[in-house]
Structure formats: C-alpha cells, structure tokens
C-alpha cells in the first residue's frame, strides 16, 4: 500500500494539545513504522490565534473557527483536548456525523455523554477512543476492554486523582495540615486555583463512571456515583489510620457482586500492605480484581503534558491502523449487562470510626454493645489518651457490615449520651486483599 | 451477522489447558457478548487419553493424535499450552501453514523461534498471539504494543519469575536461608522438583527476550540476554541490602540508550521506594519507562491456572474479533529497528560490593583510592563489625559506573592484598527513579 498522509484536526492547544504536537513531531519515524502513514496536524483550533504558544505550527494551521476544521474534507481524525462540555459535545457530534474519527481526553464529556457519542459513532462507522480520559498515561481502558475481555471483573479500586493523592501523601509523609498541603499542590501546579472538582471528588467520580461502564459492561451514569471528597480529612485521621496500619487515600470503588454494582468515590483506609497504599504523590493507579485473573494493578502518571499525550497519540495510532484495515467503528462492544445498582443492604465493607466520648466508666462497654446489637463485630479497638477535659477518643474498626447496619450504628451512636460526637468515619477497603 | 461457531483445537490439557476449558465454559455468555460467536473446544490433544483430568470434555474431544487436530478443517484456531520446543514448534508451523490462527503461552518457544513463527504467520495471514507467555495474567504485551505505540520505551525492569521472587521475599521477610525458602516454594507447588530454569534465571531471560523484542522493536535473541541466577544469594546479602535501604530482587533489565540495547537477568538491589520493591511472593510486575509517558508499572499474578488462562482466552477473543472483521494477521508490526547491542562501556549503573578485608589500618583508604583511580565515586560506605578474627566487612555502593570501569575495579580489588575476597557484588537498579 502506498504511503498515506493522515490529516488530524486538533481541538485545543493547551498543555495536552502541545504534548500531542510534540509527540507527533518527535516520534514521526516510529509512527510511520507503526502505521505506514505520515501523521500531520492540519488544523489546530484555538481561542486566541495571537497568544504565545509552547509549540510552533506552520503558517495557516492555527484557526479560531471550528468549521475550518470540522468542514475540512481532508481531515480524517479529530483529536479533542480542549475540554469542557459545550460547545465541545456539539463539535464532536458534528465530526462523527461527517465521518471523522475522534480521539478525546475529555473525561467530563465521556462520563456525561459517552453513551450518546458512542452511539453516534457506531451509526457512522467511526472510532471514538478516550484512553487519556482516565489515569493519564496508564493504558487502563485497553487493559479492561482487551486484556481482560475473557474475564469477569469484580472490583476496581482507583487512585485516579493526582491532586488529592498528592495532598494526602504530604499529610502522611510530612505531617502537613490539609490546607498547607493544598497550598503546596497549588504552588507546584498540581492543583487548580479553584480546587473544588479535585478536592470534592468529582474529577475522580467521572473517571470511575467511565471505568465502571467499561469494566462491568453496564451503562453507569455519573449521577449514580456516590461522592465524598477529602475536604474534612484531618491530620489526626491520617495519623490514627497510620497507627492502625492503614493509609488514608481518596479512592474510587467500583464493585460487582452477583450482577449488582456499586460505584463510589470517598476517602478510605487501605491496609498498608495493599498495593495501592504505596502509590504516592501525583501518581495514579488502578487496582483491578477479576474472577479468574485475581489481583492486578496498573500504575503510572495520571496527568501531565507528555504522559497524557502518549495516551492520546496511541489512540490515534489505533484509529490509523483501523483505517488502513477499513474496520473503524467495528470493534466496540456496547454495554450488554442490565443496570442493577446495589441496595444499601448489598454494600458490604469494614468501617473505621473515631468517636469523642465522655471520659466515664462504662462508656466503651455501651458503645461495643451497640455494635453487637446491630450484628456487627469489631476487629480493632483503640482507646486514645484523653485530648481535653472530660473527653476521650475511641477508635473502632469493624468487621464486614452492610450499608443498612452502618446507618443504624450511626443513628445509635448519635443517640448515645456518652458519645460527644462521631469525629470521623471512613470505609476500610481492600481488607479481603 | 449470523451467530458463528468458532472451533478451537487445544494442544495440552495440563494446568493452563484446564484453565482455558473452565474459562471458556464459565464465561460463555460474556464471550458471546464480546464476539458474537460461540467458542467450542473441538479437539484437545493429550499424551494419555486415559488419565484422570481436572476438567471433563465431551466424548470424542480428547485425542492423542496431533493430526486429528491439525488436519481438522473445522478448527479455526489452535491454542497451544502443551509447552516445550519440539514437537510443538512443528505443530504450530503446520497449523499456520494450513491457515489456522495460533494462541500460545509458550515463552520458551517464542523466545527461541518467535521470529520464525511470526514470519510464517504473516505469510499465511494468520494471527499469533502470546500474551500469556510473559507475566501470566498481566496484559503487558498489549500495553507495550498498543498502549505505548506512540512512545519510545527506554527501560523495562521486570520481576517476571514468581518462584525466585517468592524465595527472595521469604528470605527478606522471614529470615529464611535460600535452601529453606526454595524447599518451601517446592512444598507450596511454586517451584518445580528441578528448579534450575527458575533459580538460574533462564525462565526470566526468555520473558525478557520477548519484552525487549516487542518494546524496542528490535529482534532480541535469547542468547544475547546476559543471565545470572540467585543460586549464590545469601541471607547476609539480603540483610545488608535492607540495612542500606534496598531490596534484593531477581530482575530482568532491558534498557535502550541512543538506539543501543542491553538485556540481562540478575539479582539486583532496588531502592525500597522503587515501585518494584514491594512486589512480593509469587506476584510479577513489569516496570516500564517511556520517554514521554515516564514511569509506569504493571502488577499481577505471574502464573497459575486461571490467571494464565485469562491471558490465553483474551487473545482468543482478539483472534475471533479479527476473524469477524477479516483482518487476521494484518495488525502485527515486525521489528523495524536495527539490532545494536551495547558495548560494556555503554552499560551504566550503580554497583554494590561486599568485601571481606584484612582488619588492619589503612585498608579502607586503599580500597576507596582504587575506586577513585578508576574514576568511580562512592555513594555509600558501610564498615561492618568484624565477623571473625582478623577480618572485617566493607560494604560499598558506587555512583554510576560503566561495565569497563566495573571490570577494572573487580580486577583491582582481586589484586589488592588487603582484600580477602569479594564476598558479593550486585548491580543497583532504579536509582534514577
């Protein structure tokens, strides 16, 4: 087959967009060897054509008019790294409807409108790939879709937000308070000026919706991901967890038991020997448990110009290979399992409680009796020296309890006059590891 | 498209073969959803048809005649899990020459004759996939070939032999001597009665030859992998390494610098904070560093019935999908880089030495002077309390030194009258981590 020139329309020339330009340039020879094609950035859509850029593109490539790219007959593939929901969604639909394949790094869009876009793509025999949308440079979507195609995935636990993982790592390793660790993350460029999406867990939730949909073969909408952020995590929580042999991490948890699914994002305690516990700083990792394969973990950079660009350009290579074989849009397996969310009584886990209690005789007996009454046994109990006048702290780790028992226990603790307050409460994940 | 029945010929019904049968049965519905095909084991080649089996197959499936499978017109795909070089290689050639696709878990065969088999496959438009041949259940070959197709891989460090990793983990965690840890591995079924291939590093070497060939896009024959096993590793080595903040692991190292490649297997010291250091027991992990993506790691079970079967059956799914699209044998990228091995002077690394020396004044000065004379500076020096009359132990860790400097240093140490002997010497890997 003669050498073919593949023309790419790049939407967005920020950090990841610059990385894509650099990678396509630097690795041109390798890309040619992989695909037998030359890959050229034909148009790059930007908001401001005059702005100073980290990468230089030939005259005429930059444009601020989306139609110059979307209506360009020579462009086969659109790479979308501009982010946001609208107008991006409309652009991608237009691209697909005119037979252009799409590679995107846009987790927000894929978590909210992935099903719609994939169905438009299928109708038009187009590829849509989005490896870069979850865990940056880690090829986790390929692992789920192809590497484990023969297996039934039962659990995925992901550290999929580098900002919060950096903050919690700093709190544990350097004893920093939450606010100081956040400020440090902002100083280093790991956290945005407005860190809400990261800190509140919404960024991780989008990634977990994508992982759950692919891993469990069931449509899992973002609004069915239960989300709790790390805004109320204290240094004391991190330290107590450490004393008990746990590491506190913001994790996404997706579990499937007997066909029923739960997906959540929350700060949780992982046993120190769990492979995710030692994933520090801005690194990401996804732990995947399959019925047949057992425990696996995929680790790497979760963000950054070149790591994310690697995922984008590898997807681009797959599109080009498919194009040469004439099989674009033909290899996607649409979700085929019924959507069955777990009820609270189906969600089983261990739990950690830190209680501030009155410093009187019989308090611990009353509390442990409450757990026993609800049918939940205790794995660890730690009484901590009194922190202030008339108060003591009690740390408890339960054995497996379900969501209903948990609610009853919390209600019960709140009603006990000897319990001043539930200082903190976290799920303990990976105990069956 | 109408439902299609895909008939598989299974060669070998040992541990992995039984796993393949189980997985294809148990996950039939999922496999159907993934491929739109039913997958049936049509024939299974065994040595002894009368032997009691872990899985039951319908009447007439078992055969001890290879031609019943290889000349069977209805069989589209041969799954080879019988192992060995001959007659397996001949069977696979025959299968490919008659247009049958091949999935194999045979690392020995692929390391020795991979290039030949892949070229026969290409001529006949057949697929050959061998994900299970390296690191069992971890989809590492897919990650290299597809996930990082856009990147240039610079280093791969692999814990790719579970037996030796179990032995070294037991030595470190439980203070067991090498022989006791080996006996324990044999008792648990992790090591063969004849553990030579594992302990001497040859099993790992075969996997590294496959990884290097795929990761660096260059033909890397097995006889160019430098191999040193763990037979002479002592408990003292493991302990001294630990005191200095390192973990001793049998690792495969494949590095590419400026187009030149080195591939070796050896016991080496990894800094405790390196992601591979905490990979314990029979688990495998492959650390991959790419120019653009940076550091990644893939972790999971390296062997076992169902983990390995997962890799085999996932390959089977890919063959079936390719078949439905009519693109078998069309997506393989043959090695395209020139084969350029590094000279010793190109191989840079830190090194660890444990020296038994005469317990006299000026010994350390003489030794450190030797390193200085060869242009190698020292990162750590540890003088250990005298172990026996008139002797002391000196532990040294160098900064980066090349293979030529290393040879000169070893010669120099052997010539120094104050050095009783070089008790042990290991490469330190991952220091640039």
Protein described:
Two copies of one chain form a homodimer. With 433 residues, chain A is of the alpha/beta class. Chain A has three domains: 4-136 and 305-325, NAD(P)-binding Rossmann-like Domain (Rossmann fold, 3-Layer(aba) Sandwich), CATH 3.40.50.720; 141-301, Dihydrodipicolinate Reductase, domain 2, CATH 3.30.360.10; 344-428, Alpha-Beta Plaits (2-Layer Sandwich), CATH 3.30.70.260. The first copy, chain A, is built from 14 helices and 17 strands. Chain A has helices at 15-26, 28-35, 66-70, 88-97, 107-123, 140-147, 162-174, 178-187, 196-199, 202-216, 235-243, 305-325, 363-373, 403-415; strands at 4-11, 37-45, 62-63, 77-80, 101-104, 128-129, 153-159, 226-227, 246-257, 260-271, 283-290, 294-301, 348-358, 378-384, 391-398, 401-402, 419-428. In chain A, the strands form two sheets. In chain A, strands 7, 8, 9, 10, 11, 12, 13, 14, 15, 16 and 17 form an eleven-stranded mixed sheet that branches. In chain A, strands 3-2-1-4-5-6 form a six-stranded parallel sheet, sandwiched between helices. In chain A, a hairpin with a 3-residue loop joins strand 11 (283-290) and strand 12 (294-301). In chain A, helix 1 (15-26) crosses helix 12. Chain A is elongated. The termini of chain A are far apart. The mean pLDDT of chain A is 95. At the A-B interface, helix 2, helix 6, strand 12 and helix 12 of A face helix 2, helix 6, strand 12 and helix 12 of B. Strand 12 (294-301) of chain A pairs antiparallel with strand 12 of chain B, so a sheet runs across the interface.
